[in-house]
Each structure stands twice: as C-alpha cells, then as structure tokens.
Amino acid sequence: MTSTFPHLLLQQAAERPDAPALREKEYGIWQTWAWKDVARDVRHMACGLLALGFRRGENLALVSGNRPHAYMGFIAAQSAGGVPIPLYQDAVAGEMAFVMEDAEVRFAYAEDQEQVDKLLEVRETHPGIEFIVYDDPRGLRHYEQPGLVSVEQLLARGREWDAAHPGAWEAGLAQLDAQDTSVILYTSGTTGRPKGVCLAHAGFVLAARGGQEVDRLTPAEDVVSYLPPAWAGDYLFSVAQWIVVGFTINCPEDASTVAIDLREIGPTYYFAPPRIFEGLLTSVSIRMEDAAAPKRWLFERCMRLARRVGADILDGKPVGAWDRLKYRAADVLIYGPLKNVMGLSRIRVAYTAGAAIGPDLFRFFRSIGVNLKQLYGQTETSAYVCMQRDGQVELSAVGHPAPGVEIRIADNGEVLVKSIALLKEYYKRPDATAEVMDAEGFFHTGDAGLIDASGQLRIIDRAKDVGKMAGGAMFAPNYIENKLKFFPQIKEAVCFGHGRDQVCAFINIDYEAVGNWAERQGIPYGGYVDLASKPQVLTTIADCVARVNADLAGEDGMADTQIRRFLVLHKELDPDDDELTRTRKVRRNFVAEKYAVLIDALYAGRTEQFIETQVKFEDGRQGVVSATLSIVDAKTFAAARAAA
Predict the structure, then answer these.
(1) Predicted confidence band at 644 (pLDDT cuts at 50, 70, 90)?
(2) If pLDDT is split at 50, 70 and 90, which confidence band does 615 have?
(3) Dihedral of CA 411/415/416/419: which sign?
(4) Residue 502 burial (CB count, 10 A)
(5) How many whole angstroms from its chain centre is CA 117?
(6) Chain centroid offset of residue 585 CA
(7) pLDDT for 625-637, tens place per residue?
(8) Which helix (H) or strand (E) holds 177?
(9) Cα 592 to Cα 140, 497, 499, 508, 595, distances in angstroms
(10) 449 pLDDT tier (thresholds 50, 70, 90)
(11) How would residue 1 be classed by pLDDT, with cut points 50, 70 and 90?
(12) If you average pLDDT over every residue of the chain, what do you get?
C-alpha cells in the first residue's frame, strides 16, 4: 500500500477503530477521539476544503497550538492533494506575511481569535488569503470579514460535499504517492530569511518507523503534544509517529497547564528540547532551596548516590547489592516523588534534540531513572539522523546512525547525511537546494562533528560557529554556553572569542530562579533590569562562570577558552526582537552586531558600559530599555597537566 499519512490513518482506523487516537483537555475534562472518529473528521475536513475550492497542489497554512483539529488539518490537507505549512503561533504578522507570500497561500487554519486577527492583518497586504478556518469561536461571533469559516461549518460543508460527490475523495487518495511532499516546514532563519523545506511522506515514514524499531514503540504509548507544531520535532512525534505507530497523543488545555496535564497523563514517551529539561531542573532547584534543612540534606545525599550509580542501574550495568538497595529506598523517598512532580513518573523513553544538552543536565535526569537519550537531526533530514540505543548512551555523543541513514565526515569536519528522509528541495529555491546537496546525494548539515571509536557521532558545534582563538586554540562557543546554561541562574549565554586573545560572554539571568533567590536573601528589586544589575547577582553569576572555567581548565585543549570577562545583559534575548529564532536559537551574528558597543567594552578592559536598546512588546508597541552594565573579570585557572 502507498505509505502516505492519509493511507496510514485509514489503516489505523480499520485495524483499531475504537482505540484512543487523540485526547484534548477542555474545561478540565479530557475529550477523546477514537481512530475511526479521526478518520471521519479528516475526511470531512478535506471535503470541506474541496467544497470551498481548495485545489490539488495548494498549500494550507496552519497557525495553531497543539489542537486536535490542527493535527487533523495536516492530514486533511494531504488527503485533498495539498500540502500543510505550519507556522509558529507566537510569530508576529510580519513574519507570517513572508510565508504567506512565498507559499502563495489562499487557505489558512487559525486556532483562535488572536491568530485570526494576525491573519486578517496579513491579508491587508497579502489579499491572496481567501479563507480562514478557525477552531475556537470565542470572541469571533461578531466578525463579519469575508472568508471566515468555523471548523464546525467546514465539517458540515464537507459532509454535504462528500454526499454529493460519491467516490471523489477516494479517487483523490488514489493519486497520492509516497514521494509527494507531505509538509513544508520553514526553517528558523538564523542567518537570513526562512526557507521552506519540502519533505516527502516517505522520509517521515522512514523516520517514524526507525524510531519505532529502535525503541520498540507500541500503540500503548501516551504522548503529550505541547511543542510548536511548526517544529520538525513535533511533526515527527505528534504526526508521523502518531499515525505510523498508532499511539495516543494528548493535547494540553493551555500552555500554562502543561505541567499539570503532564502529571495527569503520565506520558510513556516524551520529547523535549534541552531548554524544557533546563526549566524542569530549575523548578526543582527552586523547590529545594525553599525546602526545610532536613529535606535539603536528604535530597543532597540521595543525589550523590544517584550521580554515582543511577545511570549504571538504568543501563543494566553491574552495581553492588548495597548500592542497589539504597538506590531503591532513595527512589521511594526522593526520585519517585521528584519524577511525579515533573510528570515523568511513567516515562519509558525520553528524547532531547534541537540543540546540544549540557552533560550535567543530561546526567541528572538519567541518574534519577529517566531514560533520557539524545536524538540528532535537522528540519532538512526529517529530524532524523542519529539515535541513542538503550545501553549505549554516552553523554558527549548523539548516537549511532538511525536505521536507513548513512553518515560521512567531510575533510573539513562537516557532518554529511544521506537517506530517503532528506528534503526534496527548498520551496522555490533551487539555488539554495544545490548549496546543501552534493553530487553523491549527501546533505551538508553545517554541523562540525566526528565519529568516535564506538561508532557514535559527536557534534562539536555549528561548523560556521567553530573558530580559532588568536593563539590557535579551537573556539566552540556552543560548548561553553551549554556549560553555563546548566546553572539554574543562567537562562541564556552568548560567547565571543573567534580571532581574539580571550573569550568574553553575555549572560541572561533566569528571572524566576534568581528572583526567587533574591527574595529569600531579602534583596529588593524592581524588575528584570534592576535585578540583573544587583551586585549580589553579579557575584552569584561570577561563581557560576568560575566553575565553568574550572571545568574547561581540566579538559584537553580547552583551557585557553576560559571566560575572562562577562556582563549580564539588561534584557532577555527575545524572538520578537530578532535576537532568537522561534525555536530559541541565538542569532549569533545579529546579536554581535546589535550589541557591538558591549563587545567593544568587554575587550577594551572597561568596567562598565551604558547601552540603550529598542524592544518590542507583545501588543506590538515599541519601547526603549537602557542601563549601565557592570563588566566583571572572571576567575580563571591554570590548565591541568595530563599525567605522563
């Protein structure tokens, strides 16, 4: 049978019609769609689009959070012969306008009034948007703009059209092919305008089945879908694997209720970028700092045990009987309740991807019994290149090549990938496609890496970001930044050093963690700018930097990349200010240019620097934030000498 997602959906509905496929929490109650219900609604949504004039080969833009009708909208567009294009729901109208223009969008799906308003704003300059299908009708009752159609109206039109055109939907399905484009995912655009990545059904089906094989996934898995649907990782886990494996995806009521919903569902299969795990650890750290002294003592004692034997027990390695007994007791007292608070108590397999994860952060979760592993991939590879197998998890590697994937390391250290999961092309950009695909069919990832003695891939950094210090030492900024971000007080960091004689850094404090600490210390503050400038906060951050420098001094070839000077930025780096992508990756060159005066001050030996920065507020207004930033000299260490 043709392996497209609409065909696979019908297969699941035929084999497991009454099994739960989708759940959504609404008004505190979980609503469930069985596989037969999903197949029925997808059919009627597709027929509704056809009734409105949706044509084969057209694109459907989706601007939504994790909603059942949004996920069904992906498959509905595909079954109607079209291509879904998800957009980040926190994108502003101007960012959406570029995609709408580039993809010539006539049809769009919006989750609620907020997204409808943005699409209507886009339509003022891009009149090509003819129909906007909306899910949540709240606030839209009195909207009279042309082309607004509720999901309920779409389903009703679809039922009527389907009855009036018997066999038409099936005939359209018969024309689908595994090599057809299943989705266009726009890249985050760290170095320029986003590009539309065209990915075939066959590629994502390979990725889904590869994950199913490696981790023995079954229809009994429960997954909580809370990551942006515009991210390749969510499309892999919440669409491709959902339909291929046939497990249940659960949509939280709201972004603010994800933590509660995680605890209620208790997912068995979990996927999150490192920043989510960083946030979980930060919340744990805050809780423990507020705990009574005996509880803190017990926590620290149990965590020392976990760091020593936890990962070995998880991997099935030999551990003494006495340590196993103590670990079992600690699991009852500390690790179990801790996992339950984070919603990870039923986890069988957890993955992190999207950015490098700090070894200490990775070790923490594995030590308390969470089977956290690394997945390496990019949008252009269907988020699928390497996976870590159980029992073969290394902190500094991202795993062996996934089933069906070939990896090669180029002479310049760049990671090259070949598989059927690769992009078909960049949408309307043959020039850009030619830049990343070579004559042998290998995709050039842009990442620098190496394959170690065990055959696992190690990613050093983005190839374009790896540089050299003036003295010749290799400078890998992301590696240093991840060490900094392990500390709960540090939310983001940007390091500079290429071509220079020393490394300097910008740091963003974690407002929640540092604010909580300041309140306990009796330190008054009047917002982020004020808190970030407090001498006590600078001293705390300096201690974190010193500990990172001590680590670097003990690593081969890294001593020269210790951080010599740093400053704490007066504002958080923000996607709305173009400093981060929508997947929260630093736009390094943009940040360097925007804050050039601060970089100059760091390297000129100044002790402080005034800066005035324009910012965008959530409601679209612009303002200015200004501050005089203190520049701190960090404690550094002599390089550790290797034993003779």
Answers:
(1) very low
(2) confident
(3) positive
(4) 19
(5) 26
(6) 9
(7) 899 999 999 999 9
(8) none
(9) 43, 11, 14, 15, 5
(10) confident
(11) very low
(12) 91
- Specify the amino acid at residue 461: D
Show the tokens assigned to 609: 């620097």
What CA–CA distance (Å, rounded) separates 586 from 581? 7
Give dist(CA 349, CA 355) in Å, integer. 19
Residue 526 scores a pLDDT above 80: yes
Q: Which amino acid is at 49?
A: L
Supply 574's token pair.
């923000």
Query: In the predicted model, is pLDDT for residue 273 greater than 80?
Result: yes
CB-based contacts of 445, cutoff 8 Å, min separation 6: 378, 380, 381, 385, 414, 415, 416, 417
Residue 521's nearest CA partner among 537, 533, 509 is 537
CB 118 within 8 A of CB 93: yes
CA gap 126, 137 in Å, rounded: 24
Handedness of CA 176, 180, 182, 186 (dihedral sign): negative
Name the more confident of 77 and 623: 77
The pair of structure tokens assigned to 346 is 């039923």
List the beta bridge partners of residue 34: 20
What is the gyration radius of the CA atoms in the chain, in angstroms? 25
188: Cβ contacts below 8 Å, ≥ 6 apart = 194, 581, 582, 583, 585
Q: H helices within 447-527, ranges in order?
A: 477-485, 511-520
CB 74 within 8 A of CB 63: no
What does the DSSP 8-state code read for residue 256?
A: G
- Beta-strand runs (E) in 453-550: 457-462, 467-468, 474-475, 490-496, 503-509
The H-assigned helical ranges of 197-315 are: 201-215, 232-235, 241-245, 258-265, 274-290, 293-305, 311-314
Burial of 456 (0-12, 13-18, 19+ CB in 10 A): buried
End-to-end CA distance of the chain: 63
Q: In the block, which residue shows the tokens 């703009």?
A: 145
Residues 229, 235: contact at Cβ < 8 Å? yes
Rounded Cα distance, 378 and 384, in Å:
7
Query: At which residue do the structure tokens 């006590």 appear?
Result: 536
From the list 428, 440, 280, 401, the residue with the least C-alpha distance to 350 is 280
Q: How far apart are CA 10 and CA 16, in angstroms?
A: 10
Q: Which residue has the tokens 């596989």?
A: 35
Long-range contacts of 432-440 (CB under 8 A, 24+ apart): 432/195, 436/380
pLDDT at 56: 93
**Which domains, and CATH codes, for the chain?**
5-268 (3.40.50.980), 467-633 (3.30.300.30)
Four-residue CA torsion sign, 321, 325, 326, 331: positive
Query: What single DSSP character describes residue 451?
Result: E
Per-residue pLDDT, averaged over 574-579, amounts to 86
More confident: 109 or 263: 109
Q: Name the DSSP letter for residue 16.
A: S
Amino acid at 501: D
Query: Which single residue is written with the structure tokens 């679809």?
Result: 158
Phi/psi region, residue 53 (left: phi>0; alpha: psi -120 to 50; beta: rest), is left
